[in-house]
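Work Package 3 (structural annotation) set out to generate three-dimensional models for the target panel prioritized at the project kickoff. During this period the team completed the workflow that converts sequence records into discrete structure tokens, so that structures can be stored uniformly alongside our sequence database. As a representative example, we reproduce one entry of 340 residues exactly as it appears in the project archive.
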Amino acid sequence: MINKLEHKTIRAFLHLPLHKKIRIHHSQLSQFRTDLTIAQMLNLMIYGAYLMLKRIKLPQPFQICGVDSSDLASSCCPAPLATLAVGDKKVRIYSELDADCGKRRKKRNKSEYFVGYRLHTLVVLDPQTGQPYPLLSMVAPANHHDNLFLPQLAAFAQAMGLSIQVITADEAYGDAAQNQQIKQEYGVTVITPASQKVKTPAHVDAEQPQVFCDQYCEIPMRYLGKTATGHEFCCDAAPHECFRNPLCPQGREIPFDSGQFGQLPDLFKEVDRIRRLRKHMERSYNLFKHRAGLECLRLKSQHVVSAAVTFAHLATVLTEIAAPCKTRKEKRQKQLPWAA
């Protein structure tokens, strides 16, 4: 489209002469991606978020946001060039030094391991429709753990002036100590699925769910709120209802964990509801991969991949902005309301 003389508007926007057959070569486009700085990429995504929030009326502060990752397999280095033994571990060296081998969830037609990068995106959910809108994206080698990027995305969101109440993510982001630090620094509550590896605290009925003071208590305790280290409960028995009242401590604190007592305990039904909303974020990654062309990357270096992700991110945001208002209203009528 750029090199065709009849597309005068496009050529004028790029400052190309309309009377000469000056063509743009593919190498010039590749050089453009390489010359982009990290600050320029970030500013492009911030500008896209500004345009989106100006056009699409979302409640402020953002009630629910989501963070998830997606694998970006690179076709340039499917096999390592060499494998070195360092002590009792093996180090693989690839032709693309920035890429590395990572693990992904099991899929029917793909291997469990891949070589490339991982895309981490912060998404805001419309509480009325469940529609996801991407705000910020980051790229890292595939061998980096997901929970390393949740604090960075929260810090970027605060620097952009975005006020977020809740972030929902998968189990890979369920670090209890880190999520508590995010709550203290940025005021964001992180909700992840309860880890099956974490044991249920003593004297807690996980099925109800209910919390008791000890093994002899038969009256469920009342939730008071959060402290600096955990969740605080008190006795909910009426006066003279419990014969153990004089000997009972009438209070209990359960520390934060990665199980049923995260930033918000599973005692609240809204926690499970927020977890189910995380599935709506997958639409953004499908748009990134299939519509914006990130499914099969043929680019080298993390910097150039980040540039490609930035353009895919911006294209997705602009497409959502340009969507006809009529179509958006029809979606609101068809989908279930998510607002509490």
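Confidence is low (pLDDT under 50) at residues 333-340.
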